[in-house]
Amino acid sequence: MEALVARNVTKRYTNHTALDNVNLTIPANRIFGLLGPNGAGKTTFIRIINQIINADSGQISIFGEPLSEKHIGTIGYLPEERGLYKKMKVGDQLIYLAQLKGMTKAKALDKSKEWLKRFQITDWWNKKIEDLSKGMAQKVQFISTVMHEPRLIILDEPFSGFDPVNARLITQEILALRDKGSTIIFSTHRMETVEDLCDDIALINKSRTILEGSKKQVKDQFRSNTFSIEHHGNNFQLDPTRYEILAQKVIEGDLYATTIKAQTGIKPNQVIRELIEKTELSSFHEKLPSMADIFIGLVQGEDEIALRTHLQESI
Predict the structure, then answer these.
(1) Which of 34, 114, 130, 209 has a CB 3.0–4.6 Å from the CB of 187, allowing a cystine?
(2) Do 71 and 169 share a structural domain?
(3) Same domain flag for 242 and 136
(4) Helix residue ranges per DSSP H, the chain
(5) What pTM does this model have?
């Protein structure tokens, strides 16, 4: 079952179209990267899911049902703009926010203590939010987002302000939530996080969906048939009608690193067979574009993907 399906979702303001017939399918029990440059329409889409604003037209379904008020309790939302009550104590805040999502006070108390213990921050219970650092407050807000065990979790830049240790902790919790059955919509500009965490992605640009699919499908779509090899000696020759040598450098002694682009349709095994007949091959791997390459290429123009991929200096 799909966790969320959006069909022809459109939202216009007086002089601006924020979303223009956006279509998305988000599989259940996956981490879904919602990507796009600033102003692309991601935040508007997230606000529509959370029923903060309404779409002008189109339909959204949640777990097979039309989006309605009853789904508010099944969604956990961590906005980019954090919003905790500064004068409230951590424990009181967590209990209050959990009750707003439909939990009883007793269950909210138990869950709050369980999460603080998991994060090893039980001594924060009676601290006011205003006395916490930004990172500490973000931990509390993350807990408040997921404590009621929502089936759909929306995280907007969840790692903003975290040091590497706490970023790893939050990453582990996100993966655990997925493994327990939650679907996570993950909105971020950090492409390295997308590479590490996301199962599927969609890219919104200029109010429209321009790319959607699993991470593997997306990368396969932008393969350039470019390969990096390490080999001994640089005196081999390849058929120039089938191959182009893009770069070559000495690693050490007679060990070289070479980047080769093969003609479309030539498979990696064919390249390997031809190379081992011509040189002593030490390593071989295909150079796939990173999510950052794909993001930049599609936003700025598709030719840039080829340019960035071909001219990468890393072998």
Answers:
(1) 34
(2) yes
(3) no
(4) 42-49, 90-100, 105-118, 134-146, 164-179, 191-197, 215-221, 268-276, 291-300, 303-310
(5) 0.84
